[in-house]
Amino acid sequence: MAVMSYLEAIRETLRQEMRHDERIIIYGEDVGVRGGVFRVTEGLQKEFGEDRVIDSPLAEAAIVGTAIGAAVNGLRPVPEIQFADFIFPAINQIVQEAARIRYRSNGAFGVPLVIRAPFGGGVHGALYHSQSVEAFFAHVPGLKVVIPSTPYDAKGLLAAAIQDEDPVLYFEHKAAYRSIKGEVPDERYLIPIGKADLKRTGKDVSIITYGLMVNYALKAAETLEKEGISVEILDLRSIRPLDVEMILETAKRTGKVLIVHEDNLTGGIGGEVSALIAEHALFHLDAPIMRLAGPDVPAMPYSPPLEHAFMVTSDKITEAARKLAKF
Amino acid sequence: MKGVGTLASLNMTPELLKEMYYTMALSRALDDRMWILNRQGRAPVVYSANGHEAVQVGAAMALNRGEDWIVPYYRDLAMVLAYGMTPREVMLHLLGRADDPNSGGRQMPAHWGLKRRHILTTGSVVATQDVHAAGLALASKVLKDGRVSMASFGEGSTSQGEFHEALNFAAVHKLPVIFLNENNGYAISVPARKQMAIMDVAARAQGYGMPGVIVDGNDPVKVYEVTREAADRARRGEGPTLIEAKTYRFVPHSSDDDDRAYRSREEVAEWKKRDPVITFEKRLLDEKVMTEEELKAFQQRIKDEVNDATEYAEKAPLPDPATLWQHVYAD
Lengths: 327, 331
Prior knowledge:
Chain B: Its EC number is 1.2.4.4. The complex is a heterodimer. By secondary structure, chain A is of the alpha/beta class. Chain A contains 13 helices and 14 strands. In chain A, the strands form 4 sheets. In chain A, strands 9-11-10-13-14 form a 5-stranded mixed sheet, with helices on both faces. In chain A, strands 5-7-6-12 form a 4-stranded mixed sheet. In chain A, strands 3-2-4 form a 3-stranded parallel sheet. The mean pLDDT of chain B is about 95. Chains A and B meet through helix 3, helix 4 and helix 5 of A and helix 5 and helix 6 of B.
């Protein structure tokens, strides 16, 4: 077992899975010779050759669209969209093609495809290198949306996504790439998509979140513990499908729910989680459901004070959870 | 000695030529029947191949049918018939029946897809299929499976970004793919001169570094020959070809369209003089590839097939509402 960064865990999983399954190919902008702008695919072209790690033309609709065709004809493509913000030229291919091919062909065709994309802010990326785009895709039946929070999960979930028979969007928070480290077993393993992870048990407040925010929430929980506030944390791991059972269990256990995401508030997955709790666990609640999310402004600004004001931080989570605990 | 320009001079057997004719005529007859069903209120909507039969059959028959992939568009009834979809299957699709192999009654008519014959399922947003064909070909290149893929599309769709992205991607990676444009001069009502400031779609090819070929889309033999050449080129690893087949649709865009609003009757009549089904029939008879007796037998067989398909599909069960939830995911 080695300690790895979140980024290294993704790279080593790609390597391990590619060694194991010759059908897996990687392509996207700069993923070959350069190993990706974040170096996630560094060294993979050297090991697997230009046929399996392909520097593609700079055209997102073509990257996803050709990956759909390649998947139908027997490959397991894992294309990279360089920044999640650049996924929109491909949205028709993802939403109207990849997500619907199984359904519209009455099960005849499937699209085993994993689209990897770094997302999220706090890295001075401004409007077009900071976005959280997951809610757009979580709305779409036929897609799966996976957002790992730790190197361990990054590995098990990526392997599961690659082996999945359906299109999976795999979002990697770029602020997590090098800042989040953890132990990752050498051997191959899978984490089933759709199973949330109870990161911590507590009795006063439940924080339901995913991705990088899980790490921020854990930090907030430590601070609050010193104040005598006991926090439970549920890492959703995937926002489509949602682990409804575990969401309702934690809501019922503490009676106070704080939902956290960096994606902006309105139409974010927090609304869906709230609705599920309201529909199925209302009478277990001791306080209104609270949401802490990115603000409803078009996207994250560049200048540090503006960027900081946008970001969801450990401090903001601590403050929100404290307020909820005292309700 | 074989005469220059005659059918006998071609490297095509009489059987192949007759199959070509049969498929074109079958497509026309099925098409006509679908319009009748529509006007009788028995089929909600029809998209027609009427006028395009030569392009579609000529191109399909030049491929290794059922092995090479095709990614058609809504106009391609004759193409999917040539590729092995049966008239019964076409009618099940038109009438939204449970056993429709294209979609189980989920998609609008003319949204083809038949896994058994390597016809990839298609959506409605035009040019999306062009990148799928390039992707199928990418897999063929990596897997070295010897397959060629072909996307077909109208000239209106060449205004879409994905048409250009597909050609560029395929040319850069020298993919075994054919892009077949069925240029009938109109995208519903909008004439080609309002889609592009050039005369020929094929001229685009040069900008992407691939051959662009213009062919008479009302001559199935010529289409067959250029498609054959493109497929050979693709299989040799020399990359994609753009084929522009100039043709015409004889009916409105769909059963809900009225083309009198945008085309003169004189223009339609002029093109009908070159109706590919009629001219090819005459050519086969004149050059004695097909006898009058054979033609009569074909006509009877087509009538029987169309009647059988209509009756079969009308009696076939509709989908169970409970199946609405099936096939969202594999598990």
